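Thread amino acids onto this structure.
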């Protein structure tokens, strides 16, 4: 992730954001090419067994474990465990143990409605994702994630979010040191640790006391992430809406791929739209989405514990898979 940070700090990368929507807006958004039960343009996706997705050009079944369906709605008003099926929507919850300095994961029968108290929980209609002072993983970054099951390639997917960075309550206040970006959403392959698509938040050096959001993509065969959108001058402790649409395509353009990604911030306040991109970086693996906190510079390599609390409050956090046209 250090590559992304360096990109964010170059004027050239920042200037890339401005013309992208104009270049792509006249091109129709690609439609889903594969039909799935549970697909909807208005409701969160529900995967149904047998749930098969493309991996390396072959339809491969995703293991939904002990249930026939999995919901992709992780919003604050939706319990972690579906009361009708008795199974969780997320594949797992992942956070940092402040005592052992190890990753702690909750999945299957161990993923309960209480979540991971103090780190990943739902209170008063909000999903709370928090890494706190003292958390740590020896030699790596602190994180608290809600992680989805795999999403299907060759489909139009939309991630819808309503979120606030921090809260003015004396505990979760978002302080503003520079060089402390937090990835709050990412789409990752199970075969590679670097996300295909990601979104991060950090202090905005152009507007003291404010934050900025940065949106990155990574092309197949390319080491560096590319900044394709930047939203500046936003307030901490304030709810904003954000949607990220993508046509998930594991193919390069030369092989017929027509990946697309479009970001809409705060109901058209700012839009970025990029066509012809390779939206799935490691095409042969399953791609899963992470909602939460990954503070990759606030790590434990020196101090063995995080020095800042980072909390994101989510009213909405869900994924939609659009139906294949009839």
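Threaded sequence (326 positions):
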């Amino acid at each position: 992730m250090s590559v992304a940070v360096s990109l964010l700090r170059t004027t050239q990368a920042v200037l890339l954001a401005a013309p992208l929507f104009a270049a792509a807006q006249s091109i129709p958004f690609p439609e889903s090419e594969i039909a799935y039960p549970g697909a909807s343009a208005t409701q969160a996706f529900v995967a149904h067994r047998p749930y098969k997705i493309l991996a390396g050009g072959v339809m491969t079944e995703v293991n939904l474990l002990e249930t026939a369906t999995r919901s992709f709605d992780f919003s604050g008003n939706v319990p972690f465990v579906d009361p009708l099926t008795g199974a969780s929507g997320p594949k797992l919850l992942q956070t940092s143990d402040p005592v052992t300095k190890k990753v702690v994961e909750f999945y299957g029968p161990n993923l309960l409605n209480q979540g991971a108290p103090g780190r990943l929980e739902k209170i008063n209609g909000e999903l709370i994702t928090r890494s706190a002072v003292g958390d740590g993983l020896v030699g790596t970054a602190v994180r608290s994630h809600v992680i989805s099951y795999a999403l299907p390639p060759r489909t139009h997917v939309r991630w819808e979010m309503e979120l606030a960075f921090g809260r003015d309550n004396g505990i979760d206040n978002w302080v503003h040191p520079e060089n402390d970006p937090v990835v709050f959403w990412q789409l990752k392959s199970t075969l590679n640790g670097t996300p295909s698509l990601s979104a991060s938040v950090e202090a905005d050096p152009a507007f003291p006391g404010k934050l900025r959001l940065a949106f990155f993509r990574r092309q197949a065969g390319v080491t560096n992430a590319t900044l394709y959108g930047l939203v500046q001058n936003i307030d901490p402790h304030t709810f904003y809406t954000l949607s990220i649409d993508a046509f998930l395509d594991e193919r390069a353009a030369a092989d017929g791929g027509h990946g697309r990604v479009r970001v809409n911030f705060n109901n058209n306040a700012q839009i970025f739209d990029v066509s012809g991109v390779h939206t799935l970086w490691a095409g042969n693996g399953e791609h899963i989405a992470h909602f939460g906190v990954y503070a990759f510079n606030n790590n434990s390599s020196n101090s063995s514990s995080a020095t800042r609390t980072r909390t994101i409050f989510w009213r909405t956090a869900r994924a939609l898979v659009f139906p294949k046209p009839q």
